[in-house]
Structures are given as C-alpha cells and as structure tokens.
User: What shape does this take?
Amino acid sequence: MLRRLKSDVLAQLPAKQRKMVVFAPGQISTKARTSLDAAATEMTTKGNSKKQQREALILFFNRTAEAKIPSVIEYILDLLESGREKFLVFAHHKVVLDAITKVLEKKVSSLRSFTWMLLIVCLSAAEF
Assistant: This one.
C-alpha cells in the first residue's frame, strides 16, 4: 500500500463539494412519524430533569436517523445507477450505515457493470 501525505496530494484533488439533499416529508412512514412525534413530546415535557431532557434529545436524533433511511438509500442508489460521479458516504448513526450496507449487498449482483466501493467509517465517541 502506498501512503502519501495530504499536503503532497492536495493540489491534485478536486475541490471538496458538500451537498444537502432535502427529501419530502411525505416519504416518512406512518410508523416513523408516530415514533418521531412521541420522541418530540417526550423532549418537550415540562418537569423533566436535565438528564431526562438530554436522553429524550438523543432518542429524537436516533428516530430522525431511522426516518431518513429510505430516502438516503434511494438517493445513494440513484447516484450509483447513474454512474456519472464518484462519491463517499459518511453517516453518524450506525443504524443508517447498516441499512445502506444491507441494501448495497443485495444490489451488488445487479450492478456488476459498475465499479464501486463502499467506504464505511463508524467512529465511536471513544475515538474522538
């Protein structure tokens, strides 16, 4: 394996591009919407301690990740099938990474004509 420093190859790399993809709220399933509503209600309940509020916020973040999975997968498959550009996928929630991996493993047999690589980076809080 050849290892090079970022400072040595930075001039050869294209400019970084960030994209924010907005998906329609109508794509969220009824089950996910109910779960989000319950988490939001718990988060805004008066009388909760700071610890309970933080736990409710973390639960809400996890529920939003689960709600986005179908749209994220659809977007990645569209990028993959277009074959026009290379891309990397980074995700914070392990459940999202697992769902992407599961779908791509199923699709790989039908996408043999495309060269692709899935790079999954999962950082735990201890690695920061």
Q: What stands out?
A: The chain has one domain: 28-127. Residues 28-127 form one domain. The radius of gyration is 19 Å. The helical segments are 6-9, 30-43, 50-82, 94-107.
